[in-house]
Amino acid sequence: MEKLIITAALTGAEVTKDIQPNLPVTPDEIAEAAYACYKAGASIIHVHARDEKGNPTQSYEVYKEIKEKIEAKCNIIVQPSTGGATWHTPEERLQPVELKPEMATLSCGTCNFGNEVFMNSSEYMEKFAKRMQELGVKPEVEVFERGMIENAKTLVKKGLLNTPIHFDFVLGVPGACPGTPEDLMHMIHCIPQGSTWTVAGIGRAETPLAMMSIVMGGHVRVGFEDNIYYSKGVLAESNAQLVERIVRIAKEVGREVATPDEARKILNLV
Questions:
Q1: Burial level of 200, CB count in 10 A (0-12/13-18/19+)?
Q2: Are the CB atoms for 210 and 4 separated by under 8 Å?
Q3: Per-residue pLDDT tens over the stretch 203-254
Q4: Which of 29, 61, 109, 150 is the most buried (most CB within 10 A)?
Q5: For 6-266, which CATH superfamily applies?
């Protein structure tokens, strides 16, 4: 079994300091949190930027500052979000890709997202995939619903998405696919042979799905974007604390954790 890639999703677009006081929002805070997660065992940092008021932003300049500050501290893979917030335009969402990061997310379909709608039309998906391909950015295909896997396959047929595909199953978002073991199993059985995959369980689904992924040969995403608690009613102290738990569980079952350079080889980034 290949080594375990751990992604830390530090901030997201919805969580605020009011509900999680330890949330990193400034470029310096995000860089410090990224470095702590790197030391804990993460090899990918999934980035959502915030502006000076703490609101979600897809600003090229803010992402540039965050990327540079993280890379000054360690060689972790920096993976910006092209999802942004549900109200960002496609043009705004694409801005971080112009930094030519090693990876970026590519959401492959529209879904309900709490009380809002996360819009990803075929036009959006093709535009995003084409630009990532032009710039040599590896997409992480975000899947919130089963049909999104088929959308990714369509992008492959159109020559806009290269194989092998790396999928991220984001399960448990209110309004989208639930985060149950049965749902994860179904997703795994539907992806093309040779693909790699990670799972991001939302809220209470985070740790159970992570444990499944560890023993099944998949990879894991944790962090405040997905879950702000360490246990029921107890806020996590940091993103690194959530990473540390995954590292401990992986060691208990004999799964080695990948370094950033090992993750690069697994994901065909080098």
A1: buried
A2: no
A3: 999 999 999 999 999 999 999 999 999 999 999 999 999 999 999 999 999 9
A4: 109
A5: Aldolase class I (3.20.20.70)
